Amino acid sequence: MIKGNLKVKIAKTAGFCFGVRRAIEIAEKTAKEKSKVYTLGPLIHNPQEVNRLAREGIKPVNSPWRMKDCTLILRTHGITESFEQKLRSKKLDLVDAVCPFVGRAQDLVRKLTGDNYKVVIIGDKTHPEVIALVSYGKGRCKVIEDKYDLKGLNLGDKVGVVSQTTQNLKKFKEIVKFLKKRYKNAVVYNTICRATIDRQSEASNIARNVDLMIVVGGKNSGNTKRLYEICRKYTKTRHIEKAGELKQLWFRNIKSIGLTAGASTPDWIIKEVENKIRKIKATLEKSKKA
Ligand code: SF4
Fold first, then answer.
1. Which residue among 5, 31, 80, 262 sits deepest, i.e. has the most Cβ atoms within 10 Å of its Cβ?
2. pTM of the entire predicted model
3. CB contact at 8 A, 4 and 255
4. Using a 6 Å CB cutoff, which residues line ligand 1?
């Protein structure tokens, strides 16, 4: 049963951020100019968009060592310093599509550790962006996922802090507050990108005011997972990759739905989800009148 007329609120910030849009433009432009263009691993964390690019001939490869006469595009969230050096020594034709905001975080880790700081990276230990950030720190980084990870650590007098670019802003502030109690002189760089902050802020505002929140994006996408975690604090939330995963059952007994999407979710997937929601809405309203 649907309650009243179902309202659907779509986030203005849903979908591609600057860094992802830029990486796709670089990849498509490169593919027009050169033959045999590959991305090193998935260019972005959205399997459906990665498949679309593959159909255009831009395929991901994980092990490029035997490849010859081809161009390799470096993904948005970066690779480890040693891996990049190895690629360069093989004289592969590399095209850099790393997001400049990720590049800024890498530069800060390099600079701080070069100045003998121990660097706390607030982020997900297993995420490729964080693994790459650590590689720039010459063994002087510690990855912190929550404030409890700081217990028992002795970081010394010179402590620097950076963040995974797609970190939850609230969590970042909470960890920094905790860290500052012990390391008063810690130098803190909030490297969370604007796209992440805006998406998280709008998603939480919508989630506070709806009965159901749909978050669309890759299951492997860090920023989509963060949106899901934020929204579920306020309302019932579902994380899907594509329209086919929507279930009519979820829409029963609700009056309002919010829709947002991660920074690597293409418009065409958001549109498909929106259309499917409207179809379900029409079906439920029809059955209510019958
Ligand atoms: S989410 Fe932010 S850091 Fe990541 S690609 Fe987009 S703009 Fe760059």
1. 262
2. 0.89
3. yes
4. 17-20, 76, 99, 101-102, 165-166, 193, 195-196, 223, 263
